[in-house]
Design goal:
Elements: E1 2-6, H1 12-21, E2 25-30, H2 36-41, H3 43-59, H4 77-102, E3 105-108, E4 110-115, E5 118-122, E6 128-132, E7 135-138, E8 142-144, E9 157-158, H5 160-163, E10 172-176, H6 180-192, E11 195-200, H7 211-223, E12 227-230, E13 234-240, E14 243-248, E15 253-256, E16 258-261, E17 265-267, H8 274-277, E18 300-302, H9 313-327, E19 341-343, E20 349-353, H10 356-361, E21 366-372, H11 377-382, E22 388-394, E23 400-406, H12 410-422, H13 427-431, H14 442-450
Parallel strand pairs: 1-2, 1-7, 2-3, 7-18, 9-16, 10-11, 10-16, 11-12
Antiparallel strand pairs: 4-5, 5-6, 8-17, 13-14, 14-15, 19-20, 20-23, 21-22, 22-23
């Protein structure tokens, strides 16, 4: 089986490796670098910056841990960025080594479909060529969505990509969009010393999360002196000598040295030959696929951000595995019912399943259990007591409908519930499972116990 993959991001490269492991001859066409947005301009570089700023925050609390340190502590942005680049470079080398190990061919250039079994590769030097394949996977990803009132210039008005390449810490940073990306950058640059302001058109920060999680995050942002304006839009903007002037729909005018536009992602579905071969796109420009990740054109598949839905790296990888298995004759379907997600703010946020308002809107009868991190001895030992674990369960079956965590290591803790939900376990199953002491995971058990009003370490309601 000969397969061509357009894009070497977390969807494309994972699919390529799986098919190669199953015996296919695979060619990956990538216009930039392996790893896609996630590795080069998203997940990994931002989390590397988060690691640096978390350490910086800890050093400012050394006295409270009984540690004396003379001298000043200050961020070295050049050193931080160098470390970020090194981490990314190491991961790139790892993917390239995997390609070499499994015999995956990597072709540099832009891929576009010229027929259901032909892909044109256009290189930067102007040369081009066509390769044939029995199957094709489109995994071209997404890019930062532009905003007409604030067009990216890479200097004053930044995309999330630009924010990863700054050479100086901005005195002030205005972030348009208080979703996952906007709030992550807010925490990063506030810790580095910038004066940070967030503007969100919805009525709360991280509006896709459970309302209680948003409320707690907003409280923590306020403690960090990050200003947040919700329920407002950008009306117009002007670049002047003293910075970027942004006028909001409520009449307020904000002035900032730099503006980061973080209003979502635009799908990379243009100029890749979809119209040429007759592949249909949806209302948002996404490529329409079935549960096998196959488009309406037999033999052509699409995975990752270009399919719309949850624009998450691990979703892209799972879709890539599903497509790869189907191509190689192994039946597989994409199951999106249990997808954990994480936001690397300070504190972290993680979720899986339904938000409370979604469960209510579906007419479900629910019970909720909560446990605060301040009730955990380990959290106090770590000096990180802000946050809560919230479990939503079906009132009749006790099945877990959703879990929402804000607090230390939320991104790691959520997976116990992801497994539980996937295997149909109940809140009582978690409540009756012994969790080691002292750990943060004890809070998962306590929150599950609280679904039935049985948490030992909560005061009487």
């Amino acid at each position: 089986m000969r397969v061509a993959v357009l894009g070497a991001g977390p969807g494309g490269y994972v699919a390529a490796l799986k098919m190669a492991q199953l015996g296919a001859g695979v060619t990956v066409i990538e216009n930039h670098e392996v790893g896609g947005t996630c590795l080069n301009r998203g997940c990994i570089p931002t989390k590397t910056l988060v690691a640096s700023t978390e350490l910086l925050a800890k050093t400012r609390e050394l006295a409270s841990f009984g540690i004396d340190l003379s001298g000043s502590i200050a961020p070295n942005l050049s050193g931080i960025m160098q470390r970020k680049n090194k981490v990314v470079s190491t991961q790139i080398k790892g993917i390239r080594a995997l390609f070499k190990s499994w015999g995956v061919a990597l072709r540099q250039g832009r891929g576009s479909l010229v027929s259901p079994q032909e892909v044109m590769i256009s290189a930067e030097d102007g040369s081009s060529g066509v390769i044939t394949a029995e199957r094709i996977i489109i995994a071209t990803g997404s890019r930062p969505a532009p905003m007409p009132a604030l067009p990216f210039d890479g200097k004053h008005i930044l995309s999330s990509t630009d924010a990863l390449e700054l050479t100086e810490i901005p005195r002030s940073l205005l972030i348009i969009g208080a979703g996952a990306i906007g709030c992550e950058f807010a925490c990063i640059y506030r810790e580095l010393g910038s004066e940070v302001t967030l503007v969100e058109m919805m009525d709360r920060a991280v509006p896709a999360e459970d309302a209680e999680i948003s409320e707690l995050l907003e409280r923590e942002l306020k403690k960090k002196k990050i200003r947040l304006y919700t329920g407002v839009r950008v009306e117009r903007a002007d670049l002047r000598d003293d910075g970027v002037h942004v006028v909001l729909s409520d009449g307020r005018e904000l002035v900032s040295e730099k503006v980061l536009v973080s209003i979502g992602r635009a799908l990379n579905t243009g100029d890749i030959g979809l119209e040429t071969v007759g592949i249909r796109k949806g209302n948002k420009g996404e490529i329409v696929v079935n549960e096998n990740m196959e488009t309406e054109l037999p033999g052509v598949y699409a995975v990752g951000d270009v399919t719309g839905g949850l624009l998450l790296a691990h979703v892209a990888s799972e879709q890539g595995l599903v497509a790869a298995k189907n191509i190689m004759g192994i039946p597989a379907v994409m199951d999106s019912r249990v997808i954990p997600a994480a936001i690397f703010t300070s504190p972290e946020i993680a979720s899986v399943g339904l938000r409370e308002h979604q469960a209510v809107a579906q007419g479900l009868k629910i019970r909720t259990g909560r446990f605060p991190f301040r009730g955990l001895g380990r959290a106090h030992a770590m000096g990180e007591i802000a946050g809560v674990i919230k479990v939503i369960a079906d009132e009749h079956t006790d099945g877990i409908l959703g879990v929402h965590i804000i607090g230390p290591h939320a991104s790691d803790l959520i997976h116990e519930f992801a497994v539980a939900m996937r295997k149909g376990l109940t809140a009582r199953d978690i409540a009756e499972t012994v969790h080691a002491h002292p750990t943060l995971a004890e809070g998962l058990r306590e929150a599950s116990e609280d679904v039935h009003g049985e948490a030992v370490h909560l005061t009487r309601k």
